[in-house]
Amino acid sequence: MDKPIYKRILLKLSGEALSGEGSFGIDTNVLKLVAEEIEDIQALGVQMGIVIGGGNIFRGVEASARGIDRTSADYMGMLATVMNSLALQNALENQGIPTRVQSAIEMKEIAEPFIKRRAMRHLEKGRVVIFACGTGSPYFTTDTAASLRAMEMQADVILKATRVDGVYDKDPVKEKDAIMFNKISYTEVLTRNLKVMDSTAVSMCRDNNLPLVVFNLEKKGNIRGVVCGKSIGTIIEGEK
Fold this sequence. Notes:
Elements: E1 8-13, H1 28-42, E2 47-52, H2 60-65, H3 70-94, E3 99-103, E4 112-113, H4 116-124, E5 128-132, H5 142-152, E6 157-162, E7 167-168, E8 180-181, E9 183-185, H6 186-192, H7 199-207, E10 212-216, H8 222-227, E11 234-237
């Protein structure tokens, strides 16, 4: 039986990943697939926090470009992450996985406020914690929120689940000759301006020596494989 190499992980899901084949909304089939994958990880005894984007419902940067005030647009995007968080919570609980949603913006009727010690306690008790509303501040992406929460939760690694197999030297969707890296340093990601996570998130990982693994969410068993140390996707870490 595979054994996990990480005790505590932070899973970063893009909002777009939850929309499945569509470009908008939430695909319940994708939700069920993600919940089953997470259930598999829980069975290994791995503690898990999750940060979800909101791009399948609302993208603050794009709305800002169309004339909406950037601060307002970013707060609207944060509300979209709450919708995704509640949907994933429901899917996880349908699988029998105890789950808590913690929000960086207080909305006590539907989520706990983010409190580090409480979140840590949930993880220690085997509950999945979903962190909603990003950092709670405009101008920061959910990628940066994932890095921040990973540091606060003392996670061993960030797992970034995407629609492609890993990190490429150029866009693999547009460029058929794109080459995937098995391993790359934070500095090279920043120097090459590779669109893995925003530069603030990558810099935070580099400064705190937190490894990041980018992999394809759509391939069943990938999350478990990464957690158990298999060579899947691209690992980003500091220079040796």
